[in-house]
Amino acid sequence: MLGRFLKDNHTVTTDCGVDRRNFLVGTVSTAATPLLARTDQPSAASSAGGPSPGAPVDLLLRVNGSDHRLALDSRTTLLDALRDHLGLTGAKKGCDHGQCGACTVLVDGRRVLACLTLAASMRGHEMATIEGVAREDGGLHPMQQAFIDHDAFQCGYCTPGQIMSAIGCVHEGHAIDAAGIREYMSGNLCRCAAYPNIVDAIQAAKSAMRDS
Ligand code: FES
Ligand code: FES
Fold first, then answer.
1. I need a labelling partner for 87 at 20 to 30 A (CA). Which of 32, 47, 51, 105 fits?
2. Strands (E), the chain
3. Is 193 in the pocket of ligand 2 (CB under 6 A)?
4. Which pLDDT tens digit goes with each residue over 103-153?
5. Whole-model pTM?
6. From the alpha carbon of 103, which atom of ligand 1 is closest?
């Protein structure tokens, strides 16, 4: 069963109650067990019929409207799957701990932190990354255009995550006013402090998205 919880306005998705943090805690606990005990007893994962840590898992990931078949270590995050295995490097690895929002992508239209999400939990879901938001004719998404028009970035490192989060924020109906935008974009940090211009861009894109 799919489980979800919110962290900084982003949905963290788990499959069968397994998220990256819990999975790694389980792995660390196993590693801390004395060697003799580990060799005498089957691991909790294998006795439960689940994948062993490190075992490749066959996956079909649907990203930006295309299917990708991969065999990945079951501990691979969605962020590493996108960047290292699919060559989609738009989502950035800022903190790798769910604190900066640079890795934000959309899963079934909702904002997700790809660094906290296991790729193996993404079977059957539709993912969108910054590489997939432009129009088919090559025109920019209204949010991309608004970020340019309002000078809403400086170094640009946080920008793909900001734009994906902003699109999610508008679709969720949270971009009602500047205060709402600031609150619901608070999970996306910008070290260049482009925040005022980001808020202006989202307000402008909101109407353009409605009209498009
Ligand atoms: S890299 Fe995912 S939240 Fe920072
Ligand atoms: S534009 Fe540099 S971190 Fe946001």
1. 51
2. 2-7, 10-15, 56-63, 66-73, 104-107, 110-113, 126-128
3. no
4. 999 999 999 999 999 999 999 999 999 999 999 899 999 999 999 999 999
5. 0.81
6. 2
pLDDT in tens, 62-86: 999 999 999 999 999 999 999 999 9
Q: Is the CB of residue 135 less than 8 Å from the CB of residue 181?
A: no
Q: Which amino acid is at 168?
A: G
Q: Which residues contact 199 (CB under 8 A, 6 or more apart)?
A: 178, 181, 182, 185
Would the CB of 94 count as within 6 Å of ligand 1?
A: yes
Helix 195-211 with 142-149: angle, nearest 10 deg: 140
- In angstroms and rounded to an integer, the radius of gyration of the C-alpha atoms of the chain is 19
